[in-house]
Design a protein that fits this description.
F-box_dom, elongated, alpha/beta, about 20% helix
């Protein structure tokens, strides 16, 4: 029976696109199919090198492997690259091998690469300066675990839209130098990074739409710096760190969602600084907030006129019910409330002598207790008693035993509801 090879009749650019979805080893193996396929793998637009390529690599074929990678990346007549990904780089240079990783990165840059994704764990070399002047680059992701990102003085990434640094040591000057030369940057993320030697963290990017600042919170770090953000088109903002010395957030009127986690290390003016941070995002529509104590105890909170979704993730502290009600007074149009207390403490909801927030009477439609504990019965009763237009109350009891769930469910279903339309959902 004669079987027609229809795939081989496709144009070369379609075949190369298909090969780009395969692991590099599988793409190379297609070279034995026929003469047409022999060199197609050399023109793939996505190159991914990971630890699996080193499996079975002996001293005899190390040089052959090096030559293969050099030919794949460094030949000038090859097509441009859509993506170059190199992961777990420590295993590539283990003392016995001397792979030209910097040369490979430069090879990808010279091929007009659009996306570079590097996992540089314990990389002992400086990143090539050519990487920071790549005009074709649209996405740059660097995971430099155990390494410091050295940004050269000459930086020009005119088409970069996404920049993500993970597990890296960065300083304020390098950040400013890098960001200020990315004129169309839309997505900026520092994830589990260590901020060192910073007098100021200065981010002023008109094109920025998404910003993630997630820094390692360690006691020996210096928090005497000022965070300056000027991003008029910012839509999403995530901030995780100890409270800095000061905050200057302006032009945040486009902000839709914010996720703020702030912690306190010995700071004489912690409450004022934290309040300035919150004031800078007061136009947000959806807010997730984590605090480890009432750092806003004496400072006046702004009014969140646009806030319709609020998630509060808080550690246990005395007086949290008073603070939470005070916050609800500042969110007059709130519709959805999620409560996630990471540590349960005794509360005084029964004797709470505060005016009921207007959002409970007029707008709040859904409340969720994502980590319910038996100590929260009073809290649930407070909201059921005062939420006049509530439609759904969701209670997650994943932390309780079956016996505790049965007892708590029985108590909850006996509570009176001010809203006749309220449905209680127990998970």
């Amino acid at each position: 029976m004669c079987v027609e090879d229809r795939i081989s009749s496709f144009p070369d650019h379609i075949l190369c696109s298909i090969l780009s979805f395969l692991p590099i080893k599988e793409a190379v193996r297609t070279s034995i199919i026929s003469n047409k396929w022999r060199y197609l793998f050399a023109s793939i637009s996505t190159i991914v090198f990971d630890r699996s390529l080193l499996r079975g690599l002996t001293d005899r074929n190390v040089d052959s492997f090096k030559n293969f990678v050099n030919r794949l990346l460094k030949f000038p007549d090859q097509v441009s690259l859509d993506c170059f990904r190199l992961h777990e780089i420590a295993s590539w240079n283990d003392g016995d091998h001397d792979f030209d990783v910097s040369g490979w990165i430069c090879g990808a840059v010279c091929r007009g690469v659009k996306e570079i994704d590097l996992y540089l764990d314990n990389f002992c070399h400086t990143l090539p300066a050519l990487l920071f002047t790549c005009h074709s680059l649209v996405t740059l992701k660097l995971n430099a675990e155990g390494s410091k990102i050295e940004v050269p003085s000459d930086v020009c990434l005119g088409n970069l839209k996404t920049l993500q640094l993970r597990n890296s040591v960065v300083d304020g000057d390098s950040i400013h130098r890098l960001i200020s030369n990315c004129h169309v940057l839309e997505d900026l993320a520092f994830i589990e990074c260590f901020l060192a030697y910073a007098g100021a963290l200065n981010i002023q990017t008109p094109s920025l739409k998404r910003l993630v600042l997630d820094f390692d919170v360690v006691e020996y770090r210096d928090f005497n710096y000022v965070v300056v953000i000027n991003a008029p088109n910012l839509v999403y903002f995530q901030y995780t760190d100890a409270v800095a010395e000061g905050y200057a957030l302006c032009n945040m009127k486009s902000l839709e969602k914010a996720d703020i986690s702030i912690y306190r290390f010995d700071s004489s003016d912690c409450e004022t600084s934290a309040t300035h941070l919150i004031q800078g995002i007061c136009t947000v529509r959806s807010l997730s907030l984590t605090v480890d104590e009432v750092i806003f105890r004496t400072c006046r909170l702004p009014i969140f006129h646009n806030l319709i979704e609020f998630e509060y993730r808080g550690l246990g502290f005395n007086g949290r019910e008073t603070w939470l009600v005070e916050f609800l007074h500042c969110a007059p149009n709130l519709k959805t409330l999620t409560l996630n207390f990471l540590v349960v403490a005794e509360t005084q909801w029964k004797v709470l002598l505060m005016e009921v927030p207007s959002c409970l009477s007029l707008h709040l439609k859904e409340i969720e207790f994502s980590c319910f504990d038996t100590h929260m019965i009073e809290m649930v009763n407070y909201f059921l008693d005062n939420a006049m237009v509530l439609k759904k109350l969701i209670i997650s009891m994943d932390l309780l035993t079956w016996i505790q769930k049965a007892e708590a469910s029985s108590q909850l279903l006996k509570l009176l509801k001010s809203s006749n339309k309220c449905l209680i959902v127990i998970l």
